Every structure is written in C-alpha cells, then in structure tokens.
Amino acid sequence: MVEWTAEERAAIQGVFNKLDYESVGRESLTRCLVVYPWTRRYFGGFGNLFNAEAIMANPKVAAHGIVVLQGLEKALKNMDDIKNTYASLSEFHSVKLQVDPVNFQLLSDCLTVVIATRLRTEFTPDVQAAWQKFLAVVVSALSRQYH
Amino acid sequence: MSLSAKDKLAVKTFFDKVASKAEDIGSEALARTLFVYPQTKTYFSHWADLSPGSPQVKKHGLTVMNGVLSAVGMMDDLKGGLLTLSELHAFMLRIDPANFKIINHNLLVVLSLMFPEDFTAEVHVSVDKFLAQVSLSLSEKYR
C-alpha cells in the first residue's frame, strides 16, 4: 500500500486544480510524439503526425490528451488503491493496445515538463516530488497486468 | 540518435538565450535532483548542507551548468571535447551513469518552468537529444 502524507495529497490535488485538461493533455501527448517520435507507432489511425505543427493541430491528439488526463483523474480519486483501480486499464494497455510499458514513463515525463511550464515557480521541489511519486504509482499500476 | 544540423542550431540558439541564468538553472536543477531523487544525496556526503538554497548547491549547480554550456560549443565532437570531464566522472567521482538521466530530467523541468515560451516541443526534443549525447560522452571512459 502506498502511503501518502497530507502534504503530498494536497500538492497533487493542487496540481490537478490548475490543470486545463484540454490544453495540458494535448501538449503532453504532442511533446511525447515529438520528443520520442517512435511513440507514433501506437497512433496509426490518427492521421497526420508528421511534424510538431501537425501533431499540435491534430484533433485526435487533442481528444486523446483529454482521455489520458481523465484516466489520471481516476487515480487521483482513488489514491489509496491505484493498483486495483487500474487493473482493467492495465490489462487493456497490455492485451488490446499492446503498449510497451516503457512508454508510460515517457508520457509521464512529458506531462511533468508541461505542468512545469504552466505552474512555473509554483511547481516547487516538494510539489514536483509529490507529483512524480503519484505518476510513479500510476506507471507501476499500469504496468502490473502485463504477462 | 545523433544531433542533426537542426538540433545543433536549436540547442545553440536556446542556450545562448538562457546562458545568463546559468547559476539559477544549474542550482535549481541540482536542488531538485537531490530533493526529488534522494538517492543522489549519497554522492554529497561531504557537504554540510544539501538543502535547495545552500551555497554548496548553488556553487555546484553553476559548475554543472557551465559544463553543459561548454558542451554546447563542442557539439561537433562531444566525445573528444568531454574526454577530460569523462575521466573525472569515471575515475574520480565515479557517479553511476544512471544519474545523468536524473539530472537531465531536472534540467528539462527547470528550463520549462523558467522559459515556457522558448522551450517549445521542437526545442525540447533537440535539448533532450543533446543532453543524452552529453551523458553518453561523459560515460565514455567508465569501462
């Protein structure tokens, strides 16, 4: 069981309160596809992903960015049992989507970078630590059902 | 994943712009490395104060950032240019190369919070590639 201090819970909730899912979701996924271009392999049906401008303007990327953040919100709402909350999502990523779990960390890192651009000095070292701990738990839970 | 001409230009342009803030960037990135990844503190047991504002963190942050900035000028031969620094890290400091990824990540976080408009996705990919190449070159003499 993951232990969360009151400060960590507040920090993570604080980050979520400031997140515009549409903007942050789109930019995080865009950065992932631009910074780690091999991740485009999972988005064959998304149309034009040939360059940063195209990706940023792509409506499917925008829609999917929101889906990802809504998924993270589920973890926020079930912080004391992310592992079980994500069991079927993990199975889905493994069996249906067949995503290499390494990619969860890549997207996490891009999300962190985007949040830093939004929160700026509010993204203090403590907030960063709490946020990254949260993402680490999410990544672990998502990777759990792979076999 | 070597640096294209486009990458080198993006890296040079961006770092020329932010170079004046070297101490802020370096010390903040180092502070976050020590704080968010506490296992990195094991390399600094000889420091009295490992907290974010400490004079040692500030001074060393600047040293690290100056290293990064000098690497910007060596992009045509990073391995050659960083040979001495690689020997330092390999034989004297003996920092596990896994930690290079950690400080690189924190450099990216600090660059994005300090320069959100300039640190676009395209700059991000070039800087990430550059830092990865720097890490590789720093690891050269390890074994």
From TrEMBL, chain A:
Every Globin domain range: 3-147
Annotated Gene Ontology cellular component terms: blood microparticle; haptoglobin-hemoglobin complex; hemoglobin complex
Segments forming a coiled coil: none
Pfam families (UniProt xref): Globin
Keywords: Heme, Iron, Metal-binding, Oxygen transport, Transport
A biological-process GO annotation: hydrogen peroxide catabolic process
Protein name: Globin domain-containing protein
Lineage of the organism: Eukaryota, Metazoa, Chordata, Craniata, Vertebrata
From TrEMBL, chain B:
Protein's UniProt keywords contain Heme: yes
Keywords: Heme, Iron, Metal-binding, Oxygen transport, Transport
A molecular-function term among this protein's GO annotations: heme binding
GO cellular component, one term: blood microparticle
CDD domains (alphabetical): Hb-alpha-like
Domain of life: Eukaryota
PROSITE patterns, sorted: GLOBIN
Coiled coil stretches, renumbered: none
GO terms classed as biological process: hydrogen peroxide catabolic process
Pfam family, one: Globin
Similarity annotation: Belongs to the globin family.
The name this protein goes by in its record: Uncharacterized protein
Originating species: Cirrhinus molitorella (mud carp)
Taxonomic lineage from the root: Eukaryota, Metazoa, Chordata, Craniata, Vertebrata
